[in-house]
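Lecture notes, part 5. Sequence design as translation. It can be helpful to think of inverse folding as translation between two languages: the language of shapes and the language of residues. The source text, in structure tokens, appears below.
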């Protein structure tokens, strides 16, 4: 009993290890895996787009041109993400006390801009060809290029989504979903080729406009995702889960505020718990440490948590009276 009590006291005054070397190693490994995914998917999409580009020159298909431009843009999104992953591995400093994980959000802004540019170029070419229809050459090659685009994008989508979910990178998952959408727009090229083969050359620019519309939908979703990250939005289900986890800790009489934010592909938490007002400082700290321990282990992608303890009771006591004029929430 004495040994257990001494161990509890020692643990209470020892910095909690879950936010030190083991968490740093996990973060570095996650970034390394993200970099590998980006390098491989970049190569696959560039080869896919290059094959399509050759057929665009031979056929003059604007639908295929729009798809090719989108695939090039999708491949190029790997560049800002790779830079962000690299920067995010840097250690925190006295200026950037939370580290450099938010570089992923800046990369997201660049990705949104690249998608917007690809939509603009595809729409321009489709409208120009709609006003001046031309016969499509090498129809079967165009159809084949659409299939190649679908297969390349779907492979990249599955790879990015799988690893993105495993390492907790919302940016990588979103980029994977973007690639999947690109795959379906590549299949739409088949419609343009089929229309041209049946003697309706106007089908090609019409499909080009449809692809432009699909790119705009992707642009909207990507912009919304980045906006949420920049505004520190999280899934409310994560807050509910955090409250449930904390509520199971012995000594926690009530759960106060719970704040979560994404920094890169890791969650950080700031929570308040209420404990018995007669509890000693050592015991109250031990409860806080256990709450932090449970959160880090049970809440997916949580890398660090700051737990603040408040006394619960006696009735009518205001333990924050001095701060009442400074608190807005």
């Amino acid at each position: 009993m004495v040994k257990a009590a001494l161990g509890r006291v020692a643990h209470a005054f020892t910095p909690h290890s879950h936010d030190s070397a083991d968490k740093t190693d996990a973060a570095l490994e996650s970034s390394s895996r993200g970099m590998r995914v980006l390098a491989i998917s970049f190569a696959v999409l560039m080869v896919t787009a290059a094959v399509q580009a050759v057929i665009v020159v031979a056929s003059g298909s604007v639908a295929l041109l729009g798809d090719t431009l989108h695939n090039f843009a999708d491949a190029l999104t790997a560049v800002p993400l790779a830079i962000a992953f690299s920067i995010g591995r840097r250690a925190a400093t006295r200026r950037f006390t939370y580290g450099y994980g938010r570089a992923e959000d800046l990369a997201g802004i660049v990705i949104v801009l690249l998608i917007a540019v690809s939509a603009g170029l595809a729409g321009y070419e489709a409208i120009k060809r709609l006003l001046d229809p031309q016969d499509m050459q090498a129809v079967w090659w165009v159809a084949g290029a659409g299939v190649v685009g679908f297969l390349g994008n779907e492979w990249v989508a599955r790879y990015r989504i799988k690893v993105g979910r495993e390492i907790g990178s919302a940016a990588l998952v979103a980029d994977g979903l973007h690639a999947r959408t690109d795959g379906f727009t590549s299949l739409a090229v088949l419609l343009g080729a089929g229309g041209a083969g049946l003697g309706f050359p106007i089908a090609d620019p019409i499909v080009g406009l449809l692809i432009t519309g699909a790119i705009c939908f992707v642009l909207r979703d990507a912009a919304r995702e980045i906006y949420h990250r920049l505004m520190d939005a999280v899934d409310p289900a994560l807050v509910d889960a955090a409250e449930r986890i904390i509520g199971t800790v012995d000594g926690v009489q009530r759960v106060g505020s719970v704040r979560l934010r994404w920094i890169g592909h890791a969650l950080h938490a700031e929570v308040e718990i209420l404990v018995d007002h007669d509890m000693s400082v050592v015991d109250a700290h031990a409860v806080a440490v256990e709450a932090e321990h449970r959160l880090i282990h049970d809440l997916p992608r949580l890398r660090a948590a700051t737990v603040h303890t408040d006394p619960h009771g006696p009735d009518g006591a205001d333990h924050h009276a001095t701060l009442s004029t400074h608190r807005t929430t």
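The translated text above is only one of many valid answers, since several sequences can fold into similar shapes. The chain has two domains: 18-230, 235-323.
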